[in-house]
Amino acid sequence: MTSRINSPMIVVSNRLPFILKRNQDGVLERHHSAGGLVTAVAPVVIANRGTWVGWPGIQMNSESEAIPEASADDKSPTSGLKSEQVECVTVAKELFDPYYNGCCNGTFWPLMHSMPDRAVFSAETYDAYRKVNEVFAQRTVMALKKCLAKLDAEGHMDVAPLVWIHDYQLMLAATMVRRACEEEGLRCKMSFFHHIPFPAWDIMRLFPWDDEILEGILGCDLVGFHIDDYCINFLDCCQRRLGCRVDRTRFLLELDGRTIHVKSLPIGIPYDHFAEMGRSAPKILKEKNQKIILGVDRLDYTKGLVNRVKAFERLLEKHPEHVEKVTFFQVAVPSRQDVKEYQQLKEEMDQLIGRINGRFSKPNWSPIRYIFGCISQEQLSAFYRDSAVAIVTPLRDGMNLVAKEFVACQDLSDPGVLMLSPFAGAGGTMQEALIVNPYELDDVAEKMHRALEMPFDERLLRMKHLQRREKLNDVNFWVSSFLQAMGMLPCDLNNNAHN
Ligand code: ADQ
């Protein structure tokens, strides 16, 4: 169901909800970009005459170069998004690199994941971050003005558009937009959703300009995180760094006479879509009685891939009965390959997997199969369904959607087992998973053994509960919970989810 709200929505995210590519003749074409956020939010933008502000993924020829309409055979969720509903942010490469690779991925990503030793603090890249946020804010204000002009022409002077800013790449934009609105007398409601963890005060304070970041986010009326722990960390930082008055029971805080709501809004997946893919995807080929332990992640140091592979090696050492019976299948999606840390991680994985395969392989069996690349959603769903165990063991993760997608694809006639880190946001609610500390390699190995040996009845009981919860708390529920928190939806549209 597409949520109909009374106000147009302006979504602001680093990337547009589709990818732009040039064909051989240099003409721009739209390509589908998969992901639950796009699937859930694009229909709301389309149905409510909204706008999406973002970077198109390529260098445009000029600021005024036209965005193409969707092609006639485009069946993706963004096909109904007209080019006039897209506000394209163009930034020169010299500025974009220090903003994106430098500050977003080199500073905020490790800092927010509580890995400060990996974070680089640089006045230069942070300055680029400020400037790029300013460009996004200007584009957002342009979109807002267009929106208000239409509303005013139709006599809807009482309707305030909703601006929804996404993620750690844009933490300063809200305050910049608010300032412009105050100066120019523009009306809007503003919200921010943070997709990754928010760290504790003693980590956040390491960032030399932490006060600007906190104030930047507080330009909003509603600030959303995946789980309560991140909300509490954020409230704590605002109280201690900015001296805000904070209500820790109702998650409210005050700044300059304004009240800001902080709320946990755990994201879900397009559950029915994955469940259908799980039913229809062709079976994967594997030897009879062979079991698969599956890992699916972007190749990122927060995802705990190295620990996981080492734990699998211990499993083979301690439980040799699994040799030739179990294969560890890891899909690692290339990510941020311009950043040195990510190149080093790739080398480390290549060497580690090469060593373990060299040590344990038999003529007809290798312990680890490793894909460094993307696979189609259909293949991914088949692997989710046909694996005995999914191992989702990030060292830290905002939520983690792979855990949820695995659950949605399960066939209850032979359900798999989910192993999950407590340091993922998902670890807090998916309690029927086998919860395992990714730093404790012996325990990970033992729990792999337990998962592989788990009796059918226990697998079924755990999986039934997991499926029920994820189906109720899907991505559409997430969007309507958000809209309700912004006062955009009546409560009865939002009454059916449980833990
Ligand atoms: P990510 O860090 O990207 O997201 P995650 O939540 O696991 O992490 O999402 C990864 C997505 O990529 C999944 O939807 C998955 O299906 C897809 N994917 C993975 N491997 C793939 C492959 N080989 N081929 C095709 N698709 C693949 C950030 C935060 C998370 C948070 C999300 C949403 O870091 O913590 O859950 O945003 O808020």
Question: Which key phrases capture this entry?
Answer:
about 500 residues; alpha/beta; 9-stranded mixed β-sheet; 6-stranded parallel β-sheet; 15 helices; globular; binds adenosine-5'-diphosphate-glucose; Trehalose-6-phosphate synthase; alpha,alpha-trehalose-phosphate synthase (UDP-forming) activity; trehalose-phosphatase activity
Could you describe the 3D structure shown?
The protein has helices at 36-47, 93-112, 123-153, 173-184, 201-204, 210-217, 228-242, 271-280, 305-318, 340-360, 377-386, 402-409, 441-453, 456-472, 475-485, and strands at residues 9-15, 18-22, 28-32, 51-55, 86-88, 162-166, 189-193, 222-225, 245-247, 252-255, 258-264, 291-298, 326-333, 368-372, 389-392, 417-420, 434-435. It is α/β, with parallel strands linked by helices and 499 residues long. The chain is globular. The chain starts with 8 loop residues before the first strand and ends in a 14-residue tail after the last helix. The model is unreliable at 491-496 (pLDDT under 50). It binds adenosine-5'-diphosphate-glucose (ADQ). Adenosine-5'-diphosphate-glucose is lined by residues 195-196, 267, 296, 298, 331, 333, 374-375, 380, 397-402, 405. Adenosine-5'-diphosphate-glucose binds at residues 195-196, 267, 296, 298, 331, 333, 374-375, 380, 397-402, 405.
